[in-house]
Amino acid sequence: MSDPVSISALKTYTIQNEAGASADILNYGGIITALRVPDRAGVLGDVVLGFAKPEEYLAEPYKKNSCPYLGSILGRIAGRVTGGKLRLPNGRTYELAITDGPNHLHGGVCALDKRLWEVKHTAPDSITLFYHSPDGEEGYPGALDITLSYTLRHDNALVVETTAINRSDFATPLSLSQHSYFNLAGEGSGDVLDHEVQILADHIIPPLDDTLTLSGALTSVAGRADDLRKARRLGDVVSGLFLEHGAHYFLRAKALTPDWPELVARAYEPKSGRQLEVLTNDCGLQFYTGSGLNLSCVGKSGLPYGPHAGLCFECEGYPDGAHRPELGDILVHPGTPQRRSTIYAFSVR
């Protein structure tokens, strides 16, 4: 565990594009605390869940995951590592902290979402942050230099880019993800069950049990509530999803070129007209319906967040991908930077 972060160390940076859309970024956890984009009438609205004050991210409800990972960067490995056992191709197994049932979740007790990041560069429409993760941090082997950038393009697309350089002499896993909860009707407007959701994937890797341990088995979405290849109203399918939670969608075994991410998901909210398109070069997509929100977090609007108050499109590799590369390679090799790119593109219709 690192030394406690002081309130005085927290700083929020605002980036804005020429059209007036803007995002607030916190130097703690790389958190997106607000994201303001227009509706079909041109009225700006904040479409991500979060707190009104930076210090609320240091409070116990957030740190103990009663308000799970609002807007933060997850890692070193996003998702659940089965039994906390990190197996590397060299045959070595590392024991990670058990933080969620029988599994290791989202990088550990004091993972990247609960670290101060150094701000390296700012511009009106972008910000770049840096974090050095030393060998052994949260039990992970090898040292990594991680750069995270957010850019708000003129077309209201928020570009999230990460670059990791391995400072060790052996391959080590890294699978980061952005964990914003989106509500296209606006933060605090209620649940997202009227959102229409589309995910362009043929397979999921379903949970093995109620603790959401991943099975490692590719399963076709055909005939399942998880089949979102055609847009469906979330409220019409959520009861058929496992624990109403969502699923890890398999996209590809190898990441694409960072400059050419592919469209993998859409969400549309009919009252506001806002549409979100998700593009990524990553190997998988964890779709999460916000089922774990339990009214214990009071958001920026002054209203508590209940189940399905926001939905997440977490672009990431397969959490056990260090020894299951056929399900999504997550290794960072010495001399070869890992580059991932995800775009959250907003429009109206």
TrEMBL record:
Active site positions: H179, E314
InterPro entries: Aldose_1-epimerase, Aldose_1/G6P_1-epimerase, Gal_mutarotase_sf_dom, Galactose_mutarotase-like, GH-type_carb-bd
Any one Pfam family match given in the protein's UniProt record, by short name: Aldose_epim
Domain of life per record: Bacteria
GO molecular function, one term: aldose 1-epimerase activity
Keyword terms of this UniProt record: Carbohydrate metabolism, Isomerase
Transmembrane stretches, start-end: none
Residues at which beta-D-galactose binds: H179, S180, Y181
GO terms classed as biological process: galactose catabolic process via UDP-galactose, Leloir pathway; glucose metabolic process
The protein's Enzyme Commission number: 5.1.3.3
Reactions catalysed according to its record: alpha-D-glucose = beta-D-glucose
UniProt pathway annotation: Carbohydrate metabolism; hexose metabolism
Stated family: Belongs to the aldose epimerase family.
Protein's name according to its UniProt entry: Aldose 1-epimerase
Source organism phylogeny: Bacteria, Pseudomonadati, Verrucomicrobiota, Opitutia, Opitutales
